[in-house]
Automatic annotation (TrEMBL):
This is UDP-glucose 4-epimerase. Its cofactor is NAD(+). Transmembrane segments: none annotated. Homodimer. The lineage of its organism: Eukaryota, Metazoa, Spiralia, Lophotrochozoa, Mollusca. GO terms for molecular function: UDP-glucose 4-epimerase activity; UDP-N-acetylglucosamine 4-epimerase activity. Catalyzes two distinct but analogous reactions: the reversible epimerization of UDP-glucose to UDP-galactose and the reversible epimerization of UDP-N-acetylglucosamine to UDP-N-acetylgalactosamine. The reaction with UDP-Gal plays a critical role in the Leloir pathway of galactose catabolism in which galactose is converted to the glycolytic intermediate glucose 6-phosphate. It contributes to the catabolism of dietary galactose and enables the endogenous biosynthesis of both UDP-Gal and UDP-GalNAc when exogenous sources are limited. Pfam families: GDP_Man_Dehyd (PF16363). It comes from Dreissena polymorpha. GO terms for cellular component: cytosol.
């Protein structure tokens, strides 16, 4: 449907210079959409967008600005007719968010409200929001479906996503012209098959798979496994690792769903499969042929033992499901990491 079934549309992506955002821009362009990109570069580099341009052969209009800057937002909306906003923007580092609540609430929640207000000023009522399975906190049952209550959780990052979901739901209840899809990501991993884009967190990675791949490539010495005494197959934490390109294609499916009008809907984007920590480290060893030494440490406070999705609603309503298996995810992750041992270029 390269612009035939669906007219090319302009999408405004907040925060898509980052990991999931860049992969989603590639899939949107592949699907025939026209994309306008925006990011404040707090946790991303311009190089990631240059790589997207190389992969797609397209030069997107890009705006380096902050969603708290309403005048800059207005300038973007004046310049481009936006059909839908895909909102990825926000600070994410778990450990930091607890110590800097003002920064996190102002940026993530204040920024979202600023974005929604300017969207309304320009009559743009369609949004896809990058939410997270962390809103479920410690799951009350597994696999996790969309009916599971999300009363917020001890995890600060998950709480902010929960607050933003509730704000958006309230707006959609009060003003029926809004169409919003909240996508709850499980654990995105892997990289585009080209090896040109991938996950490149600033500083020492908080998340498992970028840490493991940086050990394999020799950038970090060894993996610390936080707890091996959980009630799981190998005693370590269990997660639903979803290939980032599958996740990105979930956004395209959500956009097509939203174009028919949808009020406010939530979907879990996961695979329904689950893997333990050491299993993931071994998968990268197999994919890379490199050792991933690790040591066992105590559990992290408030860490979730096991979290994986019932993704059947997204399959039924969006016609989307994750396809890639663990081995291929790790192969593509290694292709990115071995091609970019020190991550994206920092040249501006
Ligand atoms: C996975 C497992 C750790 C690092 C993420 C983030 C966020 C969100 C998904 C989208 C756990 C263990 C980790 C390490 C380890 N994404 N681990 N050593 O905990 O699900 O959090 O959820 O919103 O990315 O909130 O993922 O990758 O941090 O940890 O042993 O150095 O690996 O204890 O069991 P998590 P993670």
């Amino acid at each position: 449907n390269k612009g035939t079934d669906f007219p090319p549309v302009r999408l405004h992506n907040g925060g898509e210079y980052g990991y999931v955002g860049t992969h989603t821009v590639v899939e949107l362009i592949e699907a025939g959409y026209i994309v306008v990109v925006m990011d404040n570069l707090a946790n991303a580099s311009m190089d990631s967008m240059r790589q997207v341009n190389e992969i797609t052969g397209k030069q997107m209009p890009t705006f380096s600005m902050d969603m708290l800057d309403k005048d800059a937002l207005r300038d973007l909306f004046k310049k481009h007719k936006i059909l839908c906003v895909m909102h990825f923007a926000g600070l994410k580092t778990l450990g930091v968010s607890c110590n800097k609540p003002f920064l996190y609430y102002k940026t993530n929640i204040g920024g979202t409200i600023s974005l929604l207000e300017v969207m309304k000023e320009f009559g743009v009522y369609n949004m896809i929001f990058s939410s997270s399975a962390t809103v479920f906190g410690s799951p009350s049952y597994l696999p996790i479906d969309e009916k599971q209550p999300v009363e917020g959780c001890t995890n600060h990052y998950g709480n902010i996503k929960y607050f933003i979901e509730e704000i958006i739901k309230d707006i959609c209840t009060a003003e029926k012209q809004w169409n919003v899809v909240l996508l709850r990501y499980f654990n995105p991993v892997g990289a585009h098959v080209s090896g040109k884009i991938g996950e490149d967190p600033q500083g020492v990675p908080n998340n498992l798979m970028p840490y493991v791949s940086q050990v394999a490539v020799g950038r970090l010495k060894e993996l610390t496994v936080y707890g091996d005494d959980y009630d799981t197959p190998d005693g370590t934490g269990v997660r639903d690792y979803i290939y980032v390109v599958d996740l990105a294609q979930g956004h395209v499916a959500a956009l097509k769903y939203l174009e028919k009008g949808c009020d406010c809907k939530m979907f879990n984007l996961g695979t329904g499969k689950s893997y333990c920590v050491i299993e993931m480290a071994k998968s990268i060893e197999t994919a890379s042929g490199k050792p991933v030494p690790y040591k066992i440490a105590g559990r992290c406070a408030d860490d979730i033992v096991s979290r994986y999705a019932d993704a059947s609603l997204a399959e039924k309503e969006l016609g989307w499901k994750a396809n890639l298996d663990l081995a291929k995810m790790c192969e593509d992750l290694w292709c990115w990491q071995s091609n970019n041992p020190t991550g994206f270029s920092t040249e501006s």
